[in-house]
Amino acid sequence: KQANLRKLVHEPSISTDGHRVELAANIGKLEDIERALQNGAEGIGLFRSEFLYMSRNTLPTEEEQFNSYKYALEKMNGKPVVIRTLDIGGDKDLPYLQLPKEDNPFLGQRALRFCLANPELFRTQLRALLRASVHGNLKIMFPMVAVLEELFEAKHLLAEERQRLLEEGIAVSDHIEVGIMVEVPSVAVSADLFAQHVDFFSIGTNDLIQYTMAADRMNKSLSYLYQPLHPAILRMVKMVIDAARQHGKWVGMCGEMAGDQNAVPLLLGLGLHEFSMSSSSILAARELITSLDQSQWSELAEQALQFTHSAAITQFVQQQLQR
Ligand code: PEP
Ligand code: MG
């Protein structure tokens, strides 16, 4: 089994009817990149940049960040690298910043909200990213967007920093894609309004499920509500994919669901372009995808969306896979 999977390391991810998708890795630390490549990652679909800020006593400088981003881009050697800007707050604290205590941290000033409220800290990260952009295939992604104003403000700061760097004579790539995570239900259900303002979406199901079900993703007594295959989630995923495709944008998924063997056939059928997951799941996902017919799963996904419970959908997928 394992040896069969190893054979797929350098293979593309193509369905039996010739539909190609990208299987990418989620990473935190720079050391994870080597493992991603060994497991056949075709790109980095989520670089959780907050790990550069954690386990230390001060903010990382622009230079430190630049070196980390440059290293990742060079190591991936032209393959796409989606770097997510700082996603702090929620369950991830930075003790040295002494963030104010909030009653509901997951509903609080986390991620992009925090960055927009602390623009100097955000500008430092954006400058480091822009400077690193000439060293590979960088895509910048903003987390926890809820309304368009946040996206506009983030893009405005990015444009200002780009302009400043160019005036200083520092090279910046002119084809950096800029996208957002879809992890707040407001964005999922109005994805058509966001699509024209982004280059890509990446669906963050870990948070999207938490916020849709109103169930803390860390609370074990609520784990029964964590249902990736619930019709509500699948319908939102479909809305996001359809909106992106209608606007000619690509759409990925970087939540745990992207590597879930029961979800992958449906996601392939719905037309997801990029699946980003833990490195350890990539080869099994590739084996599965190369055994599936995309157009057939497109029809099966439509059928699955009519079921009322995730258990029924899971059973339906498994039955179809056994045929
Ligand atoms: C997500 O929310 O699905 C996601 C990928 O981000 P994180 O798990 O880092 O919150
Ligand atoms: Mg998230």
UniProtKB/TrEMBL annotation:
Keywords carried by this UniProt record: Cytoplasm, Kinase, Magnesium, Metal-binding, Phosphotransferase system, Sugar transport, Transferase, Transport
Any one GO biological process: phosphoenolpyruvate-dependent sugar phosphotransferase system
Catalytic reaction list: L-histidyl-[protein] + phosphoenolpyruvate = N(pros)-phospho-L-histidyl-[protein] + pyruvate
Catalytic residues (positions): C254
Chief place where the protein resides: cytoplasm
Record GO terms (molecular function): kinase activity; metal ion binding; phosphoenolpyruvate-protein phosphotransferase activity
Cofactor: Mg(2+)
Superkingdom of this protein's organism: Bacteria
Record-listed Mg(2+) binding positions: E183, D207
Binding site for phosphoenolpyruvate: R48, R84, N206, D207, R217
Places the protein is found: Cytoplasm
EC top class, as a word: transferase
GO cellular component terms listed in the entry, alphabetical order: cytoplasm
EC number: 2.7.3.9
Domain PEP-utilising enzyme C-terminal: 3-292
Role noted for this protein: General (non sugar-specific) component of the phosphoenolpyruvate-dependent sugar phosphotransferase system (sugar PTS). This major carbohydrate active-transport system catalyzes the phosphorylation of incoming sugar substrates concomitantly with their translocation across the cell membrane. Enzyme I transfers the phosphoryl group from phosphoenolpyruvate (PEP) to the phosphoryl carrier protein (HPr).
Family statement: Belongs to the PEP-utilizing enzyme family.
Name by which UniProt lists this protein: Phosphoenolpyruvate-protein phosphotransferase
Species whose genome carries this gene: Paenibacillus montaniterrae
Lineage: Bacteria, Bacillati, Bacillota, Bacilli, Bacillales
Range within the parent protein: 250 to 572 of 572
